[in-house]
Amino acid sequence: EKQNSYFKAPSGGPMVQHSLLAMLEFYHQGRVGLPFIASKMCHNPARLFQIEKRGFIREGYYADLTLVDPKNPTSVKKENIFYHCGWSPLEGVTFGSTIAKTWVSGHLAWRGGSFDQSIKGRRLSFTRS
């Protein structure tokens, strides 16, 4: 997609894969707490976009969860980048944490460096009209 001409290529840079790890660096530096990160990365997007049953750990909500190991560093290398473009501006950066597991709608979708795509995510629904 990014190899298209300027006017046909989708905008944006590859950052989603490492956004939580980047936020956790502020935690390691003592600049923010974990509740602040949960608010900014989970609660506020769900509120802002009025996404139903997402963004919080609550009964009846979809289990979208990430288990972080805050004492196991992650180095960004070409071999562990999952962006379609195949690169990241963060190549060579080492974060103080690693993403151990990720659940999407209750399905363990990521563990130890590999995806389980046997079950896909669910379509989002919104409370806005």
Task: Provide a descriptive summary of the structure in words.
It is a single chain. By secondary structure, the chain is α+β, with helices and mostly antiparallel strands. Helix content is 19%, strand content 18%. The chain has helices spanning 19-28, 34-48, and strands at residues 65-69, 74-75, 94-95, 98-104, 107-111, 114-115. It is globular. The mean pLDDT is 91.
Q: Class by helix and strand content?
A: alpha+beta
Q: What form results from the Cα inertia axes?
A: globular
Please count the beta strands (DSSP E, at least 2 residues each).
6
**How much of the residues is beta strand, in percent?**
15-25%
- Rg, alpha carbons: 16 Å
Span between termini: 32 Å
Task: Bin the helical content.
Answer: 10-25%
Main β sheet profile? 4 strands, antiparallel
- Number of helices, where a helix is a run of at least 4 consecutive DSSP H or I residues: 2
- SSE run: HHEEEEEE
Numbering strands along the chain, what is their spatial order in the largest sheet?
Answer: 1-4-5-6
| Low-confidence regions | none
User: Mean pLDDT, rounded to whole units?
Assistant: 91
Describe the protein's topology.
Layout (H helix, E strand, L loop, with lengths): L18 H10 L5 H15 L16 E5 L4 E2 L18 E2 L2 E7 L2 E5 L2 E2 L14
Antiparallel strand pairs: 1-4, 2-3, 4-5, 5-6
Any key phrases for this structure?
two-stranded antiparallel ribbon, alpha+beta, 2 helices, 4-stranded antiparallel β-sheet, 129 residues, 6 strands
